[in-house]
Amino acid sequence: xxxxxxxxxxxxxxxRFFVQGDPGAILVIEFAKETQAExxxxxxxxxAEMRENxxxxxxxxxxxxxxxxxxxxxxxxLGLLGNLPGDEKAVxxxxxxxxxxxxxxxxxxxxxxxxxxxxxxxxxxxxAGSGELHLxxxxxxxxxxxHRQFRxxxxxxxxxxxxYKGSLSGEHGDGRLRGEFIRQMVGEKNYAxxxxxxxxxxxxxxxxxxxxxxxxxxxxxxRYEAGxxxxxxxxxxxxxxxxxxxxxxxxxxxxxxxxxxxSGGTMCPSYMATRNEKDTTRARAxxxxxFLTHSDKxxxxxxxxxxxxxxxxxxxxxxxxxxxxxxxxxxxxxEFMQQYHDANGIPFRSRLIANFSKQMKxxxxxxxxxxxxxxxxxxRKIASQLVGFHPARTMPLLGxxxxxxxxxxxxxxxxxASKGKVYLFVDEFTNYNDVEIGKKAINLLEILGxxxxxxxxxxxxxTYLSKxxxxxxxxxxxxxxxxLADKITDNTLLIGIEPSAxxxxxxxxxxxxxxxLMEAAKNLAKNALTIEEFLVKEMDKGNIRKEQFT
Length: 550
Known about the structure:
Elements: H1 2-7, H2 36-52, H3 65-82, E1 89-90, H4 104-117, E2 122-125, E3 134-139, H5 144-163, H6 175-178, H7 182-186, H8 188-201, H9 244-249, H10 269-274, H11 281-294, H12 304-310, H13 318-322, H14 329-344, H15 348-354, H16 356-363, H17 367-375, H18 377-387, H19 403-406, E4 421-425, H20 428-432, H21 435-447, E5 451-453, H22 462-466, H23 470-484, E6 494-496, H24 499-502, H25 504-507, H26 509-512, H27 518-526, E7 528-530, H28 531-541
Helix pairs in contact: 4-5, 11-12, 17-18
């Protein structure tokens, strides 16, 4: 399944470079020796032995950076696996079983026979070298049959693991999922000792009750009820063969979003600041799932409780890449806010921020006046309080002229352009506030030998998206796609300076525009790059040399 999930994924094609044909599985073996020659020698010995036993047909040997691509492929496959469309999912019910590594082939053979008998399929992955393959059967837990399969496969595999004197929890813990089977695994006498130890240290049973002993049945307290229907909910965004509810359901509760600033990564900045569970990616996905599933209101988004939990989300999209299940809370929040606005009206401050570009266009008529107010701390505090911003919040100042008005009709450097044409997306932030950065970016590209063309496009729509004005954002997206679709190709790229603006072409436009523009939006998205991405890409091609920057 993991290989299958990455087969048609454009981003993962480069990480599948070592895959030949259509293998049923890949066995990755890591050798560590003093020299590359020693590694090649032992790898050749292993290949000869495997071929002698008719095992495998392709034996690539990878070194250096290439080895990282294998693990990137595996990680991406797991993420894509969690995003399987529909309600059938790879369920973590028996994925932690481990047996003696010498028994693993026979154990897996019998495991697969049980799957065939029960007309089920399963994902197989992870570290065979330690006797543990992670096994996740595909089950729809929203159905009566799915609930039956969930318990039945757990019971059968527990018996099989016992036969091989293995463990149901080779890597992780038992808990409520496997606690029911501990008695079977360790025997009545040992289980009685466990209960006695628990009672001695925790006589009131207040410390994590019901996890190891006195565990309730493993098919109770499940997220999904048997026979649960997935409600039809109309949304402005498309969710890739899913509904918005199914996207929220991708959260598996692993808690990676509870990282602190000491852990590295971006997700989740609001939790890092508050240390409150309600400010995690998990909480936002869970509360949306609960209300979209159980709300009896015509507009299932119309709940102040959802708004409270969504409020501190910065829409940074850290979750989209760092969450193991790739839950995109920024997208969920934007959809929620549009639906919530429809039911409750739009706050003045939200309208003000969403219309940022219009405000800046008006203010740019008298930039000195705007800069006087928002560049003077005393005046800025008064103005901020009037519009509902925190008085300590600084505001972006305006350039003397907008970037578009600052540009000459035709640069002399264009005559020297030898590396082709690029289109520069002049976003609303660069055009009004970061004019000097925009000028320097154009100058850099021209000095490097590119003809820079600035098309008459609209703003990106980022501010509308951030405040949940999806109808307005859709109009902007469709206008930009129609205007740029025939200009932007694999050879004439669209480059942006402000990441949050240019990335709307990749992250939001394809799922927001009407269906007749979807393919055009996808083609545009793959050729829309930040200026940093463009420079790296050109450097990799040899069109730019590092020495040019010194």
